[in-house]
Specification:
By secondary structure, the protein is α+β, with helices and mostly antiparallel strands. It folds into two domains: 8-163, Ribosomal Protein S5, domain 2, CATH 3.30.230; 168-270, GHMP kinase, C-terminal domain (Alpha-Beta Plaits). The protein has eight helices and ten strands. Strand 1 (8-25) and strand 2 form a beta hairpin. It binds 4-diphosphocytidyl-2-C-methyl-D-erythritol 2-phosphate and adenosine-5'-diphosphate. Residues 62, 65, 70-72, 93, 99-107, 109, 238-239 line the site of adenosine-5'-diphosphate.
Length: 283
């Protein structure tokens, strides 16, 4: 018989930055962005089991990420500290999203833990508070808690919903690690793209300002963009390394993956209009 202490599975979907402009810099050195964030149905699975003794444990830590620094554990501890909740949780993560790929995997895992525990620990925290708390874990966490396609500004905390078309994406993962701090500190980075008032959905008038510097340091990213550009307009997401292009049917996207050379890695993903756990917090 099912009870509240069984394992339960929750999806943590990825995001793509349809464009990413750097429009300025804050006095603390952080860069001000404008971006449209799009949820896609490529996802990690977070399994949670509630306990009554207050312990928070990660049962299958990721290679290279000690349990205590994993964003899922940090998210659970943050919520427990904030609310004084006496319950704990055991955590398992089934990782599918490329780590350090610019698809927001770590941030999405953290957001899913916060949304799921909001329900399982019966916290009834408003979405706005969860978003504020989430920002302290990472710039992309508020977006995943917001839970729908958004025009994102500031360093990731200002959000306006935006209707994006339903499309199928091909996402390629060049097997290189891009250092986000290194990209943001590169003298060649464009930091003065003029701010736009409303989000543009046409790729003709937008770009990813981080792409030039990322490709300069990692030619593999340029090679992946060039290969995918044979089929459709292709660009990098976030600080890389993943690159993507959109297609109007799953067949078209699958055909591209069929042609993929053996030395490249890629996925097909569909746009998501809402986060699967959107109902777990109220505005
Ligand atoms: C650019 C985005 C777009 O989604 O890239 P992805 O992480 O998705 O790839 C994010 O905002 C990335 O934010 P976040 O993931 O928190 O960046 P971190 O790795 O913590 O940032 C590392 C370092 O990059 C610089 N940094 C980061 C974000 C920002 N808006 N301005 C910055 O100048 C800071 O020096 C910071 O210490
Ligand atoms: N649950 C998690 N999943 C992925 N990465 C995590 C997690 N917790 C902490 N991290 C750390 O965050 C870093 C960035 O991860 P990720 O979110 O996948 O990248 P990106 O922001 O480029 O999409 C990883 O290299 C890892 O050290």
């Amino acid at each position: 018989m099912s009870n509240s202490h069984d394992w339960q599975d929750f999806p943590a979907p990825a995001k793509l930055n349809l464009f990413l402009h750097i429009v300025g810099r804050r006095s603390d050195g952080y860069h001000l962005l404008q971006s449209v964030f799009q949820l896609i149905d490529l996802a990690d699975t977070i399994s949670l089991r509630i306990n009554e003794d207050g312990a928070i444990q990660h049962l299958n830590p990721l290679p290279g990420v000690p349990a205590e620094s994993d964003l899922t554990v940090r998210a659970a501890r943050l919520l427990q500290k904030e609310t004084g909740c006496s319950k704990g949780v055991d955590i398992r993560v089934e990782k599918r999203l490329p780590m350090g790929g610019g698809v927001g995997g770590g941030s999405s895992d953290a957001a899913t833990v916060m949304l799921a525990l909001n329900r399982l620990w019966q916290l009834n925290m408003p979405r706005s508070r969860l978003m504020e708390l989430g920002l302290s874990l990472g710039a992309d966490v508020p977006f995943f808690i917001f839970g729908e396609s958004a025009f994102v500004e500031g360093i990731g905390e200002i959000m306006t919903p935006v209707a994006t078309p339903d499309v199928d994406f091909v996402v390629l993962h060049p097997q290189v690690h891009v250092s986000t701090p290194q990209i943001f500190s590169d003298p060649d980075l464009t930091r003065n793209t003029p701010p736009i008032k409303v989000p543009h959905l046409s790729s003709a008038t937008t770009q990813n300002d981080l792409e030039y510097v990322a490709c300069k340091n990692h030619p593999e990213i340029r090679e992946n963009i060039t290969w995918l550009s044979q089929y459709a307009n292709a660009r990098m997401t976030g600080s890389g390394s993943c690159v993507f292009a959109s297609f109007s049917s799953p067949n078209e996207a699958n055909r591209v993956i069929y042609d993929l050379p053996k030395n490249m890695t890629g996925y097909v993903a569909r746009s998501l209009s809402k986060h699967p756990l959107h109902e777990f917090a109220e505005f």
